[in-house]
Design a protein that fits this description.
The complex is a heterodimer of chains A (467) and B (339).
Chain A (H helix, E strand, L loop, with lengths): L6 H40 L2 H35 L1 H35 L6 H30 L4 E3 L5 E3 L2 H5 L4 H30 L3 H36 L1 H8 L5 E2 L3 E8 L4 E8 L2 H7 L5 E2 L13 H30 L7 H10 L2 H16 L3 E3 L3 E2 L9 H32 L4 H8 L5 H8 L7
Antiparallel strand pairs in A: 1-2, 3-6, 4-5, 7-8
Helix pairs in contact in A: 1-2, 1-4, 1-6, 1-12, 1-13, 2-3, 2-7, 2-13, 3-4, 4-6, 6-7, 6-11, 6-12, 7-8, 7-10, 8-10, 8-12, 10-11, 10-12
Chain B lengths: L9 H29 L6 H11 L3 H18 L1 H10 L1 H23 L3 H29 L4 E2 L2 E2 L9 H25 L2 H32 L1 H8 L3 H5 L1 H18 L5 H21 L2 E3 L3 E2 H4 L3 H28 L11
Antiparallel strand pairs in B: 1-2, 3-4
Helix pairs in contact in B: 1-3, 1-6, 1-7, 1-12, 3-4, 5-6, 6-7, 7-8, 7-12, 8-9, 8-11, 11-12
The chains are: A mainly alpha (467), B mainly alpha (339).
Chain lengths: 467, 339
């Protein structure tokens, strides 16, 4: 039975599964690392213990998420070879060094200084500890730089030639690294990671405010998260738009799929909702706003936009996936901007921290960033099909000579393992959230580790007068 | 276009670098995988806490050498990467799954309470055991040769498994357990250290046995290896390799029974180093035995040149702060959670 399965589809499902799972962790830890650095800086600057307590709570969550990111990432570094060996053979000359640089400039840095961040409290000075946090945060961004450069090169390849042996050879490294879609993708993804973290933090803070626990901590957390929602969420709209225009220039078929546009036309309408039918080459049950797509994409009501029928059927991406993922991403982005606006209004009404319905709203949006990130990656990755290196190498020509049963069985093993392991990880993170920040007075009662100041004074004989 | 081809032997340098990365991985992750292998045999939970704490700040950095070896192979020898990964599809994936289970156990174990902690104790042990065994199996499969046609793997899904590769798998389990045991002798004291001494000297005998079996079987299986080691004058040049190994064994044995806390660990590393050297000599110049040499698999000189610049600058930096971390977390480990 297993022999009838298509190894290309299986390899794609397996890679999609492992990479989708993996991206959830970096999407969270990139933002979290930077935020932890800000928290520690505020703590060192102001001496306000609340910041340190928030830091110590979230650094534990960071460690769990980071650990899961590491183990799911190691898998990927081998899967280029296990699943896509033809791709590895052909593009190794171009992409190999980029990934090599990612390991050398980022992975070692993150791994080593994470150790200092977690276990170094009593072994290094506060300054050195802060430096470690900053280094880890920088490491996550450097890592994103290289991997997004490699991914963007697969979307908008340049700076290479294909030789007679069918292999890719680099001709201009700067052109390879800074390929046309890279700056947009890097900015878009980094900001997406920051927003993902901000909305998780906002959700957790709202949970505490709603339960009236850790109120001092929660106010700081919600305040900082809302600064992101107010200023950064609208920024993402602008960058997303620029990214879209860049895609229109280099991958117009992807944009046509995002818009669900079949016919090339002037004054193209924006399809709000529809069911794109790949076979019939039309949208069913479409709700459209006239001229809007032309306006957005060409900044002209009567501008011409290419439809999917410009490309032969076998050159088109699966439209419904791209179309719907795009709507989910944009929908969540809109909700995030709206959250910022509401927060602004509540702030001026001095009701930001005690409006019940806004607390429910933020709790509901806590996982929204993850969904938006996944949806965004679905748009860009499915939207460039049927190519793995856009318009140069087809996905079906990139696959390893591994038989379908092996892939099917390992796919099953991955699904079972990831569900169990990362399910447990999610449980422990929720547990840590439920436990919340531990303030110094509480620590005394709960663990007896730290002695309250008055006792210390009596013991050391500095108290004096009281006796 | 950047190209050092005219000045240096790029494939040779990269072969050396990849082999070094693999060696560093084997030594560094070797000891923390070894701690995982010995884990359930420790006398008390408090011992286990100390064992875990002794490697918690390091395991992530150690495992990064595996990513460097894999990523470096992709970058510097893409053809070898593209042939070996499909050939070793099943053992590589099982190894990765093992690494997942043991990797998450570091964080989960201290977050879990009561009985669920047991789950992560076993996840840590069996994950470490599985990953190690599969690494040995991979080694055993590679030294026996890979079937290649054109630029692709042309063998079956289960070519990697036979009695020999299984034996190498078991051998590596004992080898890493030795590294783990001697690491614990160095990093703990009291009850844990006493037990670690016993465990290390127990596995030491097996490690010696397996090294002897592999050393004798490789020249018996392969005429090239036989010629390389036993022709004159090679024999005299290479003779120190087994002799020094034997001396190391004797010293480790004595140290484990009386005194020295640090030396067994470093001499165990020495044993690995020498075995690795012996293996490297036997496999030369293959990167995919016996189908592709490292020169045939080399990436374009432009690609090897670009990454070489970064490596020359960054590798010393990486080694520097890795050493800093080991220095920072020096001394005996405690059983209390540090954060």
């Amino acid at each position: 039975m297993l022999d009838n399965l298509d190894p290309v589809i299986l390899a794609r499902i397996q890679f999609a599964f492992t990479v989708s799972f993996h991206i959830l962790f970096p999407a969270f830890t990139i933002g979290l690392a930077s935020w932890l650095a800000v928290l520690e800086w505020r703590w060192l600057k102001t001496g306000n213990q609340i910041y340190a307590e928030i830091y110590r709570m979230w650094v534990k969550i960071f460690a769990v998420a980071f650990g899961m990111g590491v183990v799911s990432g190691v898998v990927l570094s081998f899967q280029f070879g296990t699943n896509w060996s033809e791709f590895a053979d052909k593009t190794g000359n171009v992409l190999g060094p980029l990934l090599g640089y990612e390991v050398l400039t980022a992975f070692f840095l993150e791994a080593s200084f994470l150790g200092v961040m977690l276990f170094g409290w009593n072994r290094v000075s506060p300054r050195m500890h802060f430096a470690s946090t900053v280094i880890v945060a920088a490491g996550t961004l450097v890592s994103a730089f290289w991997i997004l450069s490699a991914n963007s090169w697969m979307q908008t390849p340049q700076g290479f030639r294909v030789a007679d042996d069918g292999l890719f050879y680099p001709t201009d490294w700067l052109a390879v690294i800074f390929n046309p879609s890279f700056p947009y993708r890097f900015a878009h993804m980094t900001i997406a990671a920051y927003l993902t973290t901000a909305f998780v933090v906002a959700g957790v803070a709202s949970f505490y405010l709603w339960r009236r626990r850790h109120v001092k901590h929660a106010r700081i957390m919600l305040g900082m998260a809302m600064i992101m929602a107010i200023f950064v969420a609208p920024m993402q709209l602008v960058i997303g738009d620029l990214h879209g225009l860049n895609t229109l220039e280099h991958q117009p078929a992807k944009v046509a799929a995002m818009e669900g546009l079949w016919e090339t036309q002037r004054g193209a309408p924006m399809t709000l909702f529809a069911w794109p039918d790949q076979e019939a080459e039309e949208n069913k049950w479409a709700i459209e706003i006239p001229y809007l797509t032309s306006l957005i994409l060409t900044h002209d009501l009567d501008g011409e936009v290419k439809g999917l029928k410009e490309w032969p059927k076998e050159e088109r991406p699966p439209v419904a996936w791209v179309f719907w993922s795009f709507r989910i991403m944009v929908g969540i982005g809109t909700l995030m901007i709206l959250t910022g606006l509401i927060a602004l209004v509540l702030h001026f009404k001095k009701r930001l921290f005690d409006t019940r319905w806004f607390q429910y709203w933020c709790m509901a949006l806590a996982p929204s960033g993850f969904i938006a990130v996944l949806a965004g990656w679905f748009v860009t990755e499915i939207g460039r099909q049927p190519y793995i290196v856009y318009e140069i190498l087809r996905t079906s020509d990139a696959v390893s000579p591994v038989a379908a049963p092996s892939i099917a069985i390992s796919l099953t093993a991955f699904v079972v393992t990831y569900t169990f392991v990362f399910g447990a990880g999610a449980y422990y993170i929720l547990h840590l959230i439920n436990k919340g920040p531990v303030s110094d007075e509480e620590a005394y009662g709960a663990h007896g580790v730290r002695k309250p100041p008055i006792v210390t004074k009596l013991v050391t004989g500095e108290g004096g007068g009281h006796a | 276009m950047l190209n050092f081809e005219a000045f240096v032997d790029l494939p040779m340098i990269w072969y050396g670098l990849i082999m070094t990365a693999v060696l560093l991985y084997v030594i560094l992750d070797g000891f923390d995988l070894g701690v995982g292998i010995l884990f359930p045999f420790a006398p008390t939970d408090q011992c286990r806490d100390r064992m875990m704490n002794s490697i918690a700040p390091f395991w992530d950095g150690n495992e990064t050498w595996l990513v460097l070896a894999g990523g470096g192979l992709f970058a510097a020898f893409p053809l070898a990467y593209a042939i070996l990964m499909p050939a070793l599809y099943i053992p590589v994936i099982i190894m990765l799954l093992g690494l997942i289970f043991r990797g998450v156990a570091f964080e989960f174990r201290f977050k879990a309470s009561g009985k669920s902690r047991r789950i992560w104790d076993y996840a840590f042990h069996f994950g470490s055991l599985t990953a190690t065994f599969m690494q040995g199996v991979i080694l055993g499969a590679v030294v026996q040769g890979i079937t290649v046609e054109g630029r692709q793997y042309a063998g079956g899904a289960f070519d990697w498994i036979d009695a020999y590769s299984i034996m190498v798998g078991v051998a590596l389990v004992f080898g890493y357990a030795l590294l783990g045991g001697t690491w614990l002798v160095m990093k703990t004291d009291g009850e844990t250290q006493h037990w670690a001494r016993q465990s290390a000297s127990y596995v030491l005998g097996y490690v010696g046995l397996f090294i002897a079996v592999v050393s004798i079987s490789m020249p018996m299986m392969d005429a090239n290896v036989r010629r390389l080691w036993f022709s004159l004058p090679n024999f005299y040049f290479l003779l120190p390799v087994p002799l020094i190994t034997a001396v190391f064994f004797a010293v480790i044995w004595r140290d484990l029974h009386k005194g020295a806390e640090y030396r067994p660990f470093f001499l165990s590393i020495g044993v690995f180093l020498l075995s690795y050297l012996g293996l490297g000599i036997s496999l030369w110049p293959w990167i995919v035995p016996t189908a592709v040499t490292f020169r045939q698999a080399a990436a374009a000189p432009e690609s090897q040149s670009l990454l070489l610049i970064g490596t020359v600058i960054l590798l010393p930096v990486v080694l520097g702060y890795t050493a800093y971390c080991y220095y920072l977390f020096r001394g005996k480990s405690s059983h209390e959670t540090a954060y």
